[in-house]
Amino acid sequence: MLSALVIVPAVAAVLVALVPARHAPLARWLGVAAATGVGVLSVGLLWPFEVGDPGFQLVVDRSWIAELGVSWHLGVDGISLFLVLLTGVLFPLVMAGVSPHAEAAHHDARAYTAWLLVLEAGCMGAFLALDLFVFFVMFEVVLVPMYFLIGGWGYGESSKAATKFFLFTMAGSAFLLVGVLAVAFLNQRATGTLTFDLVTLAEHQELATGTGRWLFLAFAAAFAVKTPIFPLHTWLPDAHTQAPTAGSVILAGVMLKLGTYGFLRFAIYLFPEAAAYFAPLLVTLGVIGIVYAAVVAAVQPDLKRLIAYSSVAHLGFIVLGLFAFTRQSLTGSVVQMVSHGVSTGALFLLVGMIYERRHTREVAKLGGLQKSAPVLAATFTIVMFSSIGLPGLNGFVGEFLILLGSFETRRWWVVVATTGVILAAVYLLWAYQRVFHGTPEGENARMPDLTLREGLVLVPLLAAIVFMGVYPRPVLDRVQPAVDRLVRHIDDRSSFDEPEPEPAPAASTEVER
Amino acid sequence: MTGPIDVPAVDWAGLLPITSLVVGAVLALLAAAMVPGRLVERVAPAFTLSVALVSMGGSVALWQRLGDDAPFATIGGAVAVDRFGAFVALAVAAAIVLSTLLAPGWLRPRGHSGVELYVLLLLSGAGGVVLAMANDLVVLFLGLEILSISLYVLAGYDVARRGAREAALKYFVLGGFSSAFLLYGIALLYGATGTTNLGRMGDFLAGNLPRQQGLLLAGLALLMVGLAFKVAAVPFHNWAPDVYQGSPPPVTAFMASAAKAAGFAGILRLLVTTFAPLQVDWRPVVWVLALASLVLGSVLAIVQDDVRRMLAYSSIGHVGFILLGVYAGSARGVGGSLFYLAAYTFMVVGSFGVVTVLSTPGGDDDRHPLSTYRGLAARRPLLAGAFTILLLAQAGVPFTSGFVAKFVVIGAAVEEGTYVLAVVAMLTSVISASMYLRIVLTMYLVDPDPRAARIAVPAGAAVCLALAVGVTVLAGFVPSAALDAARDAMPVLLGSP
Q: B79-81 and A57-65 as β-strands: parallel, antiparallel, unpaired?
């Protein structure tokens, strides 16, 4: 079942690429159908998924490259479940709902759809992989479709942005590959068998403290670029601004999570001691990212760039939560990963829709859109409030849990980070005011409202935003056991001790109200 | 009066990979001289292909046989018959096949006639296989010279062109120079150990490592110079860009694949078997060669404007990667290097296949600027797609053989604890990736020149590209069989019987 999530989009990509040129429109519908199928499958995971089981479920494990000890090992647990779900849902939505802009020089619906499907296969594979080799392969392979999507269907200097994106991430992965190999071979030296299996490596390895720290840094380099953590974030605004709408949505919604997910699943799980050792550094960088990106976002003239920077800020929160190592903060980070995917994805969709109508994203040239497009404005408002973290919407749950959980271990960092919440309100509301309020003039007055198709695409996202905000219990119930297990793992294997005062359920009831 | 001359036993079946190529070359020459008309010329490519396939068959049979039999040395211990030789012979023959497929489409529009190119390809390949199977330094030198002299001529095949003459002369002078180094090294090693047989030399070194090692180390160093020149490792790489640029692209394809594989076969066999006792001495040297090749190859590649020069510098970078496996010297390292060589054969021949298709006869043959590729995706989508796959494979993108190859050699280096080299190698692959992406960008995102002539893809080139891309992708998805084979192909020290 899990293999299908990777293989179906990959096979569909090949089929789409083989559609004859004169039937090009068929390619798009074939792609949407395949992505929808994957989406249904990923939602279907919720039923066989055992809520209380902290381990990996629905595991697939087959030997792939025996000579290297590599196996096709997939599995899902509470941490990855909702990221898989997010991937499965976002892809069909962007494929059905966003038409790639027609100005692209060599638009070919087949190539566009095929690249998106390859991207989906790669993202799914990365979230499901329980084998370091498989993860690395998937982590790398997503660069190629994204590169072509940004380069081929982007705006302005898109080829430069695409190349920058590719090289930045690849440079990070360079360290990751060496790290992965070192972990496997050091384990082979100790135990005699070569394996890239995550669970085996994490549970049975005995690394010298120094070695573990170096290896953690190698892993962290790759994930920090991908996340991105300040000061490695410089590729992101360019890539986002230049990317086509679908690219931005997927990049922000799904691909950035590969970085934070990588930290959680691999770097922290494999090297708990080193993670605890470097936690102050990463938490500090995360907090700097929150404040810095928020300030920079406030002065962006380009709406898309503004949202890109807000992404950096949000991911700063996630990093803070990850390295605070409490049950609440980690749970909050996982929830925030999903929330950010939904709300930032929706924001990029909306900005894309505005651009399709007005052919500009400059805040200064827009104004009064509330009058001409009330439904769009209303949707934007909800999504924006979710991004700010208004209680009752999904953004609040994650952010609150992160701040609450981190407060126990990282008090002063949290104090600084909280200003980020206020800054987020400042820059988003200010942008909203300039874009939607006032009296529309010229083009702005004639801007059409959302079409039915666009509305239908946004409805699932809005539903998720409200549902997760009002009733996060089902999500938390599934995330919590896996997180608890990870926290125990960190406790056992590092000098870090989890503060005990508050029992975990108390936090969740508090959020629920 | 002495007795009858002692004729050493010869295992003809084991020599089939070599003999088939030599006999094929001689037959082709004879036929061309005796049969009048253009008939011979027309069947020459098909004939060359079948000869190479026979050689491949011989290698495969040998491989199977050595699964049961122990490897042995034949012709008085001068030629090693082991899986290592069979593996490299297979790669060399594959390079002949692929280059031969490219040749007719390049020769015909330029009005070349005759079978010489095919004969020289076969001979050069034979030299490469001899080099790979040599168990005696004299035989090694013989193989290297057969390989090289054929290549000197091939480089200048298009003699009417200035670039070709420059390439041939440069290659010949520098190549002759490096052969002299090699020969001098052999002489010194003979002085130090009293034998030129690799097996006996290895036994000697394993038994009694002399306290005064000056002669020995100097000999090994000079030997390495000769072989490093052949594979174009920095700092012995200066010839490569000019020669790769000036030679006919099908020949360059052969040079970058077969000659490299043969040269590395020599290096691997020497360092891993005979000179294994001197590992502490040669390792630092290989480390420096690898580092210099990786860095210079990738950095200089990005400032080039001629695609052939880009590929030439990038091939120097790939040499650095293969040297990582040599450095490790372990079963994994040697297997990794061999897998890399085999995978690179298909990638580089495919890449130069695209270059062949896109070079236009006439004065323009001397230049092959990046602008040739403008908008190729719009003009010839399949060709652009094939080139993209080959370039991404060279960049080491997953699900291509290039990724697996890099993964294995870096794994071998990491296993031996050289993290610095491993990290540098990965970072240089990022630098080279920017160069590959530049080509891809030009193909996909720049509008084609409206005045550009229509591109014709000859049938042979199409088959060659299909093979190259097919193998590259297939080995990326299911590399197990090839990896196992490469690992089983560890060279063995063979004393005389």
A: unpaired
